[in-house]
């Protein structure tokens, strides 16, 4: 409790899959950490930030700086701006230390199909995406992440988090996790139920472990919070293990230390599974992490202070609030076999963190009520997802949702799901079984009225057809390699001009095409091309988008200009530098290209250890006599820091205030770039594009070159 009364330390995590994670780590250790540790703020001496001992590769750090001090102290403004800028670029995540634990325990590999059941606000989802992309040389990992949240508005927060990572392997959906639809995929000409290799089940909880950062918990916490949440938590966990593949892992976690929300849910889940689930001993998975074993006995207390040790003590008048699953198992042998001590309780005073509970479950066999796939109505043809191929059948009967445990209801005894019409997955034939009993579980998908969806109406996801006239000019202009997966390109409109083109992985395309009527998709795909405002003179109607460049670059064989460190500095600090400002080699390459979108590529120079030791790809534009980089503001700052330029800006416009629809010739989200002497001014310049739009509304900046004392100001 003494630790709970102290402010929570600030923790940051470096995005692990980015090839320049080492560069960011070097910048943090050699510059910012050294600057802050000598400071004293409000009488508090700032300690040197420390790496979290249990997080791999020194990619997570904590300091005794509270979030309040970090935001408000003028002495820490530079460090704070660095964190904000790098966070918006997706290179750093500010995330509570204990929140980083569940994704690590899932042991993600690039081929895993992952479901994040209660994903918002998305910090753990970001970790899952990073682990999928552990090999940066593979633009499309075989696996994917489906991130779900029940709250439509929080889904958009989730989209914002996921967008920072620019992955084609993430899909955000909006459903109640306790009844999330059973998806299907096409395999070998047939449709099959989708089972996930890994599931993160970070359920809604009372949050008593978060009172170091959520002050309201001190005022609002009561014992009844856990009693109200237990049923929902159990239903979500049951739905998760139903959709988990045999041999797969599910991590159940809460930011509560109340056994009713923790061990009680796990014990009930293990009991329902009849041996199909096993608690995994994760003691060796995170060396350096201190934790307490799960408890095997606990009591319940009502809001009025009345204690109960077991279900038999609960008066009938309380049966609607208190359920048998909230108590420990009464059979000592059964309790011992569950091995609840394998659950992990993270306590705040052990490593100066929040309170947290986590349990790792392995599925050894199908759930007893769900040992066969169900047979249900064929799916209706999709009206919003087009372009089906031979691999995307529409005539096969579609397996719908296997039955789930009936939610506990007030005043009712717990029900066991009944048998339903099924398909034997081993026999490959559909076998009708007796109809479910009237008082049994849910059979087949729920009636359509229960599937009513709320929230904003989303634009459709429309894949390009094999013969779409939009694509051949793009393929020719950028000389895309023959193995480019053009069927994975989609747009968000049925009619009119396609303004943006996005890409998803092959596996996510399969999910999208076969489930458009089943799930409410909020967002998916990474933007790879945007339409020029005036496409006639430029050879191609679409320019490259920076957020998708790492996905596209392996397939692009033309319109590439190789640049050096000094070229990077010129391109990112000047608005429209003349071609002559580039190095001789880069200048010669650029002169050979026609006007239009280009890739500016920096390759590491092993002979110059001070230069970035990772490749950098930037989107650019070749004008008649000038050249420019199309890079969002925060990414611009990030790359400048990598090449040794310290960036410190005042009154800089927030990135989300800048329109993402920048006119051609204006930097995307580019508010805040400095203007150097001798560059082309605003207005319709030689690039033939209007630069009075988003990129032309300049804010004051100060850029200080690390190599010397030179500084300049640009204001428009």
Automatic annotation (TrEMBL):
Active site: 255
Gene Ontology biological process terms from the UniProt entry: tRNA methylation
Keyword Protein transport carried by entry: no
Annotated GO CC locations: cytoplasm; extracellular region; nucleus
Keyword terms: Methyltransferase, Nucleus, RNA-binding, S-adenosyl-L-methionine, Transferase, tRNA processing, tRNA-binding
Superkingdom to which the source organism belongs: Eukaryota
Entry protein name: tRNA (cytosine(34)-C(5))-methyltransferase
Organism phylogeny: Eukaryota, Metazoa, Chordata, Craniata, Vertebrata
């Amino acid at each position: 409790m003494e630790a709970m009364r102290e402010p929570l330390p600030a923790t940051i995590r470096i995005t692990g899959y980015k090839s320049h994670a080492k560069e960011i780590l070097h910048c943090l250790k050699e510059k910012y950490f050294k600057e802050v540790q000598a400071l004293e703020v409000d009488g508090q001496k700032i300690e040197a930030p420390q790496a979290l001992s249990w997080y791999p590769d020194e990619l997570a750090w904590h300091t005794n700086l509270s979030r309040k001090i970090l935001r408000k102290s003028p002495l820490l403004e530079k460090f704070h701006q660095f964190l904000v800028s790098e966070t918006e670029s997706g290179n750093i995540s500010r995330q509570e230390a204990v929140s980083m634990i569940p994704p690590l325990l899932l042991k993600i590999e690039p081929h895993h199909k992952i479901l994040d059941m209660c994903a918002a606000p998305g910090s753990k989802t970001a970790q899952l995406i990073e682990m999928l992309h552990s090999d940066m040389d593979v633009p499309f990992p075989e696996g994917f992440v489906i991130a779900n949240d029940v709250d439509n508005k929080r889904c958009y927060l989730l989209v914002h988090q996921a967008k920072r990572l620019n992955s084609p392997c993430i899909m955000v959906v909006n459903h109640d996790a306790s009844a999330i639809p059973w998806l299907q995929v096409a395999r070998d000409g047939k449709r099959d139920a989708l089972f996930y290799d890994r599931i993160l089940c970070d359920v809604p909880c009372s949050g008593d472990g978060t009172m170091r950062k959520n002050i309201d918990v001190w005022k609002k916490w009561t014992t009844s919070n856990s009693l109200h949440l237990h049923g929902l938590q159990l239903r979500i966990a049951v739905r998760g293990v139903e959709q988990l593949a045999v041999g797969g892992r599910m991590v159940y976690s809460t930011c509560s230390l109340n056994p009713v929300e923790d061990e009680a849910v796990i014990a009930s889940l293990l009991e329902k599974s009849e041996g199909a689930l096993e608690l995994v001993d994760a003691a060796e998975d995170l060396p350096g992490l201190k934790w307490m074993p799960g408890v095997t006995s606990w009591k319940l207390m009502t809001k009025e202070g009345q204690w109960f040790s077991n279900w038999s003590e609960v008066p009938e008048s309380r049966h609607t609030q208190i359920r048998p699953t909230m108590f420990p198992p009464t059979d000592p042998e059964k309790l011992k076999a569950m091995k609840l001590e394998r659950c992990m309780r993270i306590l705040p005073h052990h490593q100066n963190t929040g309170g947290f509970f986590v349990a790792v479950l392995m599925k050894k066999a199908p759930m007893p009520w769900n040992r066969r796939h169900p047979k249900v109505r064929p799916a209706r043809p999709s009206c919003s997802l087009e372009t089906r191929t031979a691999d995307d059948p529409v005539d096969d009967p579609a397996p719908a949702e296997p039955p789930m445990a009936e939610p506990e209801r007030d005043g009712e005894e717990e029900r066991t799901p009944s048998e339903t019409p099924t398909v034997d997955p081993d026999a490959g034939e559909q076998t009708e079984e007796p109809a479910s009993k009237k008082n049994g579980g849910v059979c087949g998908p729920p009636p359509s009225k229960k599937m009513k969806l709320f929230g904003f109406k989303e634009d459709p996801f429309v894949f390009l057809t094999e013969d779409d006239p939009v694509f051949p000019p793009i393929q020719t202009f950028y000389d895309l390699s023959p193995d480019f997966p053009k069927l994975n390109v989609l747009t968000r409109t049925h009619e009119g001009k396609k303004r943006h083109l996005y890409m998803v992985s092959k596996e996510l395309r399969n999910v999208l095409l076969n489930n458009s009527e089943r799930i409410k998709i909020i967002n998916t795909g990474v933007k790879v091309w945007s339409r020029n405002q005036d496409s006639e003179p430029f050879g191609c109607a679409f320019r490259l988008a920076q957020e998708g460049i790492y996905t596209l670059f392996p397939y692009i064989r033309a319109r590439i200009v190789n640049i050096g460190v000094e070229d990077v500095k010129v391109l990112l600090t000047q608005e429209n530098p003349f071609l002559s400002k580039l190095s001789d080699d880069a200048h010669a390459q650029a002169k050979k290209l026609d006007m239009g979108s280009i890739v500016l590529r920096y390759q590491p120079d092993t002979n110059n250890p001070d230069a970035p030791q990772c490749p950098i790809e930037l989107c650019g534009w070749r004008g008649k006599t000038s050249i420019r980089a199309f890079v969002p503001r925060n990414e611009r700052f990030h790359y400048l820091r990598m090449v040794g330029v310290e960036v410190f800006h005042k009154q800089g416009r927030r990135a989300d205030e800048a329109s993402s629809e920048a006119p051609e010739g204006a930097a995307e989200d580019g508010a805040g770039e400095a203007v150097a002497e001798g560059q082309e001014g605003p207005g319709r310049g030689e690039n033939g594009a209007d630069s009075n739009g988003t990129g032309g509304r300049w804010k004051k900046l100060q850029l200080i070159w690390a190599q010397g004392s030179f500084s300049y100001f640009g204001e428009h």
